[in-house]
């Protein structure tokens, strides 16, 4: 991995350790719930939607804390979350 | 050629002309992806890729038989031939599991796999059963059986078996929409054994054919799209860190983490359970 890329990632994670730990924990929680409710499609989809909404809230929170909140940024998080929801709905709950 | 190169550069590499953010990650592009994803969702819903109860699986008897025989050939074992009596037994077993609401080789009232096989008119010297539920793809089912240490692998690779029958049946099990896969193995007691003609009905099996390619296609499309998004995010992050770009945008590191978790979840959702 190139040094500048590694340093950037390291600094980003170090400067916002709590935020990323929160996101990582939510991700692990998401996978655990998917595993528990494996095969129960409605609940699987509900878990996915919950994680996607958590992600949007996380994004807003993260940028508020860092005083970098901008409408464009919020829209970006919403768009990515909803793209994922729509795509996975085809698989999980057609 | 130069135009394509410029376009790809514009699409993935942050520079002055794309406001120091890969064009493929701009909100207008993301909006286009969202509209495409939404339209796809509607098309797949209208395109009847599911049956009335809303099951979505890409499992077929032909594929299961092919994959099972491939595993046997890899282990220098003869292929299993399809037997309609065993398929009928598998069908009856699956129907019974839905009717009596159980997920086991043995029914609550004590019916064994052998009862179903004998009930279908198959007199066996050797017989066995594999069960699976809620898998999305045939290869997931066979892979899970092959990786199992609970006798499924032994069933598939048992030298004594000469014939096999399958059933793929949708229904409600424990209140949940479930796709059951039943695989019955056997070796008839005499070589002259022929199953009763009346039970040799292929139409009893419930194949989930019309939606097969659609589900497979949408799954692959999901993986390809997420891989594209990951590539765009990594390249954008790489060059932004290289050029020390400061900009107003979402955090690529967070997007990457989110999509990686979603991808793991997507693959997890293809895996069902076996007994």
Q: Topology, please?
A:
The complex is a heterodimer of chains A (94) and B (275).
Chain A: H1 3-15, H2 17-36, H3 41-65, H4 71-92
Chain B: H1 2-12, H2 27-46, H3 61-74, E1 81-82, H4 84-100, H5 113-119, E2 124-133, H6 138-147, H7 152-156, E3 163-173, E4 176-188, H8 212-242, H9 252-268, E5 273-274
Helix pairs in contact in B: 3-6, 4-5, 8-9
TL;DR of this structure?
The complex is a heterodimer of chains A (94) and B (275). Chain A is 85% helix and 0% strand.
Rg value of chain B: 25 Å
SS elements, strand count of chain A = 0
H/E element string of chain B? HHHEHHEHHEEHHE
Roughly how many Å apart are the termini of chain A?
40 Å
Number of helices of chain B: 9
Mean pLDDT metric of chain B: 83
Q: Assign an overall shape of chain A.
A: globular
Helix fraction of chain B? Answer: 40-55%
Based on helices, strands and strand pairing, what is the structural class of chain A? mainly alpha
Radius of gyration of chain A: 16 Å
Strand arrangement, major sheet of chain B: 1-3-4-2-5
CATH C-level of one domain in chain B:
Alpha Beta
What does this structure look like?
The complex is a heterodimer of chains A (94) and B (275). Chain A is mainly alpha-helical and 94 residues long. Helices cover 85% and strands 0% of the residues of chain A. The radius of gyration of chain A is 16 Å and the shape is globular. Chain B is α+β, with helices and mostly antiparallel strands and 275 residues long. Chain B is 48% helix and 14% strand. In chain B, strands 1-3-4-2-5 form a 5-stranded mixed sheet, with helices on both faces. In chain B, helix 3 packs parallel to helix 6. The longest helix of chain B has 31 residues, at 212-242.
